[in-house]
Amino acid sequence: MMSKAASALASLSLARALAGQRQEAKSTACDCLEFAAVYYDNLASCGRAKELYFLTKYGASEAYAPTEPIAGLPHQVCNNFFKNFKNNSCVNVDLYSFPSETSDASAGQSWCYVSNECLNLNGGTFATNKLGFALGGWNNLQSTSNLSWKVCDGNSDSVLKDKTMDELIAIGAESDVSMAMLLRYAYPAVSITWGEARDFMETLNDADHWNDALSLTDNVNAIATPPSTWGTRLPFVYSTLSSIVTSEQGTILDSPGHRDEFHVVIGREVWEVKRSDQGNMAYLAGKFYLEFEVLCRFGCSSTAREAPLDLLTQ
């Protein structure tokens, strides 16, 4: 039988091992913080970092944008999305990084809040104290936050744009946020409409065109590019779609007026984001996840697991 001393030593060794595991799992100062928790704990004010960059880049006041009326887009972004977003994955800095003449260094970047102890912000902004936040924000019309934010690194940070559609749908359901807004903050967008892209994507997925023996790139290259005698727009659309499809990066095909109904291309997959039949009621009830439906139109493989076959009762 193990002596009391041996038992105590074994318990001590186990405790040290567990403590070491906890130490290894301990978060670092530059780990992204959960958005909803940041606002709930009053560590930052929505709109003072990059939540509303897609507006402030055109000259909207960084200090006053978050105070727009309840029907305004800033209110919907901050109160309906970010303050409910129970996730710490990095989100897009710019929702609309096009047309190219309005794009800047922020195009393609993603960001998140981090501890004020983080020194590697990768181009982000250090925090100010609460007094500086108040003076800078309200008197000088400058955006200053009392929590640091960083530009994310896709190699070490969890970034929404790297998530699959199924993963994003699960994230949207968990946080009860609009899928249209979540996808905007996840995937890049291009100024190509579904009407322009439809022929290309339908041809790619047509049974008479698709060849299982070929790679995705080879199937894409087998689609004939329209002649330039028809104008330059269609060849541009086909060339851009070829790059998007072969990259397999989820990409939003923007709708006229940047509406919340649009299509998403992921490889050969085409997803449609449309307002649900009860979308208005869902919005008014604060059930934002139910406001929009995300439907796969073609090119998607089912990820649902089938129930195991019971060989004894068949």
Describe this protein's structure.
The protein has 314 residues and is of the alpha+beta class. 35% of the residues lie in helices and 11% in strands. The chain has 11 helices and 8 strands. It has a 5-stranded mixed β-sheet with strand order 4-5-6-7-8, sandwiched between helices. The longest helix is centred in the first third of the chain and has 22 residues. The chain is globular, with a radius of gyration of 24 Å. The termini are far apart. About 5% of the residues have low confidence. Keywords: Signal.
Secondary-structure map:
Layout: H1 4-25, H2 35-40, H3 53-56, H4 73-81, E1 91-92, E2 110-113, H5 130-139, E3 149-151, H6 165-175, H7 179-186, E4 189-190, H8 194-205, H9 216-221, H10 233-247, E5 251-253, E6 262-266, E7 269-275, H11 279-284, E8 292-298
Parallel strand pairs: 4-5
Antiparallel strand pairs: 1-2, 2-3, 5-6, 6-7, 7-8
In brief:
The protein contains eleven helices and eight strands.
Shape: globular
Total helix count?
11
Helix/strand order, N-terminal first? HHHHEEHEHHEHHHEEEHE
Q: Please list the strands of the largest sheet in the order they lie side by side.
A: 4-5-6-7-8
Strand content: 5-15%
How far apart, in Å, are the first and last alpha carbons?
Answer: 52 Å
Keywords: Signal
Signal peptide: 1-17
Key features?
three-stranded antiparallel β-sheet, alpha+beta, 35% helix, globular, single chain, 8 strands
